[in-house]
Amino acid sequence: MKTLIAAFVSGLAIIFNFNSLGSPGSNGILNSTDTVTISLKGMKYLGSVNDRFQSYNVEMAEVVGGEFWRPYKTMDSLPAQGAAFDFSNRNQMFRKLPPVNLADKRLLNLAKGLAPAYVRISGTWANTVYFQDNDSPGTKAPEGFANTLTKSQWKAAIDFVRATNSKLVTSFAVSKGVRDSSGVWSPKEAQKIVNYTKSIGGKIYGAELFNEPTIPMAGGVDTSYNGHNFAKDVAVFRAWAKKEVPGMLLIGPGSTAEGIPGQSFAGLLKGFITTDSLMSPGPLPVFDVFSYHYYGAVSMRVMRGGPFSIKPENALKPEWLQRTDAVADYYTALRDKYSAGKPVWVTETAEASAGGDPFAATYLDCFRYLYQLGSLAKKGVQVVFHNTLAASEYSLIDQDTHLPKPNYWAALLWAKLMGAKVYWAGKETQGVYLFAHSIKGRNSGITLLILNTNNTPITIHIPSGGEQYTLSSNELQSGRVQLNGQELKLTDDDMLPTIQGKQVNAGNVNVPAASITFITFENAGK
Prior knowledge:
Radius of gyration: 22 Å
Structural class: alpha/beta
Oligomer: single chain
Strand content: 15-25%
């Protein structure tokens, strides 16, 4: 596994050149003085998303206990400006994690607040995991695998999914330990997991065969692995699943590292396989859901500077926020080409790969988080899985304390207020982004989401009264968030606080600088 991760991150360093995204600014916030007028009757219905649209990942490395990205506060150094990190010092880059306690009261309470959701238990470690199908403590993984998943660890994951009103999505081992004499994938490990899951009353709702097959060097397969191998593997996977796990959604290909404008990936990363190369050989891969992963940047753990890095001063600029749109268009076109009519899921995404940048754990990243959800919903993407729930800087919940980060509060507001029906919210102005959904749990009404990235307040003119929920912070790169001026935090017994809006009347509403505002209109005529 250490070799596989090193190959992956070293390959990333090959891909990315060293320039900055956009031009530097004092804080990346734009200026606007326009009044934005909202017309509820003019909101055109665009379509609907899955009821579990906002979902999240729990890394297999967390479940089994393994190496994951070291928190910045424990790192001694970072790459020099314009240089990639020296991965020979692995202890500086990665930290060994004990298996996560998925029964922790605080973690469970926070996860319940995001329900209903899909929970995807996958990641690089899932590609090489051996399922120890007995009641003994975990032992060393046999040849062909890199890590061991015990029955007790998997049961804890199933119990977590059940307790949080979630549905389980996963992926299976694809390493040399599961391949037959011809080098083709066999379901022997997957069958063990499926059988045990059924025996304890669990259900695998959907599965990707391979976590990120575009970078197969992280899958523990032969270095010569190609699209023809993938096609054969998927054919076996599909035949097995339809017979042994009827009703389980087959999700794929789960591609990553493509579609960002101005970049060509083929040939730059050793062993990289394009989605076209994965999906075009026969027998043509067939999936029930077309999936991809998206990271708009690589974290400063790996490199500092370049078009695939993002600095805090640029984090509110449209060039950064709208990068997710270009990648969604790219993969949607591939869906149309190879899996026409199938739903699109983003099965892994966050601020930056390799654990996220330090500001991923601050209020500043809430704008990207909510812009991405709002924009992808408008484009018809059905489910978005944030990576991760509680590991590294990009997590919603702090890895060590299990306390909520700013993005958690953004996710909680989305979970409580944004329903499945999607509408066109109206004309935007500079630095202001508008999104509209049905009210969560209601047959009628509209929730309007306003992202004000400007460094001055703006005025929103609304046609009727509603309930306002405004998220703000005293500093952009702060771990503290206020709702309508009151800091959000857990109660003394680790329960979520009551989320209450404030009444606003028809007419002009002030939206503060660098703020996020939800307004619910129960009488919107929708």
